[in-house]
Design brief:
343 residues, mainly alpha, three-stranded antiparallel β-sheet, two-stranded antiparallel sheet, 55% helix
């Protein structure tokens, strides 16, 4: 989706270039011992499950609500707020689709192996079969069905079992942020009017000289006089577009039939196409062609009829059921129940 764009370049700078530069600086400035301890702290915070960011999210949310209702007469948005809080709790508490010995057979039956993104194999860590569309989460220590990502703010993975609650949380949080930013903006304008700063207001500087306030200066004057209101407004002005864009992205990939984890796999397929190793192969026992990667050293030995794939758009997504059916799969996920449990 973002291949060759400034987003991709920024991603590599943030995830690779900066961490490597920071590590080199740390080892040269404070020594290996301190750097090793810092890496352990980083691993404890981001490398495995811990409730720190979950607690931080809850605290920030309720502090923000407290400031909001202390400064603003609450206009009916209680249903959206209740839905936002409820969906957050549900996303945190719900089983994202953890693969266990009891449900691994049922999970393997949910999605077929397309032999392009997913192959039939065992998870090296869980030591059991790895269902198609699942991913092992190193933070949680288990495989998750149709895993999208591990969210530190939920202290939980986002997978097939709780993706609907995650989407509901994002959508309602976007509404809350936009509404809050708009409402706090009207409050700032009202405070500007109440305090007599609306038209041609004059204040006196430190030398006692009169200074006529511009519109911008009067707004800054109000915000300086109400620091909590200013902090919350700035936070909402940042969060509203950021959460809105992320919500749209999550909804888009859901309706296109892939996850953010699978998006990286499709980028690898695009690289393989450029390398000339992706082919549409017809097997003797198959009615249709299948898309496979055949490495250059194996192409001479592979005698199956094949044709090269030139563009990623020529590769069908085996898990794309249509936009509405993709959305229904997430909104009404089938339970991971084995036949043994049903008998």
């Amino acid at each position: 989706m973002f291949r060759g764009t400034v987003v991709e370049r920024a991603y590599y700078v943030v995830t690779e270039t900066l961490p490597e530069a920071l590590e080199r600086w740390a080892r040269g400035s404070v020594g290996d011992a301190v750097t090793v301890h810092a890496e352990r702290v980083w691993s404890a915070l981001f490398g495995r499950r811990n409730p720190l960011f979950q607690i931080l999210a809850i605290v920030l949310y309720w502090v923000g609500l407290g400031v909001f209702f202390a400064q603003v007469a609450p206009i009916p948005i209680s249903v959206t707020l209740a839905a936002n809080i409820g969906s957050y709790i549900a996303a945190c508490a719900a089983d994202p689709g953890v693969i266990t010995a009891a449900n691994v057979d049922a999970a393997c039956r949910q999605f077929a192996y397309d032999r392009l993104l997913y192959f039939e194999r065992d998870c090296r860590t869980c030591q059991r079969r790895k269902p198609a569309r699942s991913k092992h989460c190193s933070a949680c220590g288990h495989c998750v069905q149709m895993m999208d990502h591990h969210c530190i703010w939920l202290n939980n993975c986002v997978g097939l079992g709780n993706a609907r609650w995650f989407l509901a949380f994002l959508a309602t949080f976007s509404i809350v942020c936009v509404y809050g930013a708009w409402l706090l903006g009207t409050v700032v304008l009202e405070l500007r009017h109440v305090r007599g700063l609306a038209s041609g207001a004059v204040i006196w500087d430190e030398l006692g000289q009169p200074v006529e306030l511009s519109f911008k200066s009067s707004i800054l004057y109000v915000l300086d006089d109400s620091p909590l209101l200013a902090v919350l407004l700035v936070l909402l002005l940042i969060l509203a577009p950021a959460i809105g864009v992320f919500t749209a992205y999550q909804l888009r990939i859901t309706m296109l039939g892939y996850t953010s984890n699978e998006e990286s796999k499709w980028l690898n397929v695009a690289d393989a196409i450029r390398d000339g190793v992706v082919f549409a192969v017809r097997e003797s026992d198959a009615a249709h062609e299948i898309i496979q990667v055949i490495e250059k050293e194996d192409q001479d030995a592979d005698r199956r009829p094949r044709r090269p794939i030139a563009h990623l758009r020529d590769v069908p997504n085996a898990y794309h059921r249509g936009a509405w059916d993709n959305l229904k799969l997430v909104l009404y996920p089938p339970p991971l129940v084995s036949k043994a449990h049903l008998s």
